[in-house]
Write a structure and sequence with these properties.
about 290 residues; six-stranded mixed beta sheet; alpha/beta; Rossmann fold
């Protein structure tokens, strides 16, 4: 297990700044009054309930939402003035897996992100794509259709597509959703490696304990920024209740603040009610 320790390349120079941003879709604000700074080299987890604005915050950095107030800047330049050097990995459930495209073709799509007026592939593009696919362990499946891959391989394909444009900032929308524990840990270790190579990473997730184990910084949002800081300080029953609107017991283990699941009582008498239910079922089976 990785403990959430910042790496030595992290700096205190801001790279993504939200200046009192209110944004949303079709005239309806999803996020209000967001003041937030992501520093160069940070590795940040975004937590919050469904509909809290996690994906909207990522899309605001991409300039893909309606902004009603405030400004978003990347590397000191407003996204209104220049397209930011940002890689984006969407949720896997948003992908059309029946689209007739191979792994290599998907990865190469990322190479034209910084030059939309020249959307053809150069030899250097293919060489870089092959290098990144090899680095992520998917070069051997580069000619296969994307629907033929495992969940972990599919995640790596779209991560490779984001990396082939050499972004300074990498945005990931629930990169560990729908994968098993081993694949989740593999993805998190891979992201740690990228972060230690100088890539600033901001990811959304619903997996609170994975954030506690792997990430040095977390931001809790629910229409606004509720709290931010190291998971060991942020994860308290009080702040999680403010974020999720529910009581979530927190336990401390080996320096980590982990969220425990509350036991479910099956009836007014708890275990007695469950035992009675089981015995009643046995009686019915014997009848």
């Amino acid at each position: 297990m990785l403990h959430p320790v910042p790496h030595t390349l992290a700096s205190r120079d801001p790279i993504v700044v939200f200046d009192h941003v209110t944004c949303g879709y079709g005239g309806q604000a999803i996020l209000s009054g967001i003041d937030l700074t992501i520093n160069d080299g940070d590795f940040v987890g975004l937590l919050g309930p469904s509909g809290s604005g996690k994906t909207t915050l990522l899309r605001a950095i991409l300039g893909a939402v309606d902004r009603y107030e405030g400004n978003v800047s990347v590397d000191g330049v407003s996204i209104s003035d220049r397209r930011p050097s940002v890689g984006y990995v969407p949720q896997l459930e948003a992908i059309d897996w029946n689209f007739p495209v191979t792994v290599e073709e998907v990865v190469l799509m990322g190479s034209t992100m910084n030059r939309p007026m020249f959307p053809w592939f150069r030899r250097a593009d293919r060489e870089l794509a092959h290098e990144i696919m090899d680095r992520l362990g998917i070069f051997s499946v580069s000619k296969r259709h994307i629907r033929e891959l495992s969940g972990g391989q599919q995640q790596r394909v779209f991560l490779a597509r984001a990396l082939v444009s050499s972004p300074r900032v990498l945005l990931l929308d629930e990169p560990t959703a729908g994968v098993d524990i081993k694949t989740r840990d593999d993805v998190m270790h891979l992201l740690h490696d990228l972060n230690h190579q100088g890539v600033t990473i901001l990811m959304t997730t619903h997996e609170i304990n994975a954030v506690a184990a792997h990430l040095p910084w977390v931001i809790c949002i629910n229409g606004k920024v509720v709290v931010e800081g190291p998971p060991s300080e942020v994860f308290t029953t009080e702040t999680l209740a403010l974020t999720y609107g529910a009581e979530m017991p927190v336990i401390h283990y080996q320096g980590l603040a982990l969220v425990a699941e509350s036991p479910h009582l099956y009836g007014r008498n708890g275990r007695d009610a469950l035992t009675s239910h089981v015995h009643a079922s046995d009686d019915l089976n014997d009848a």
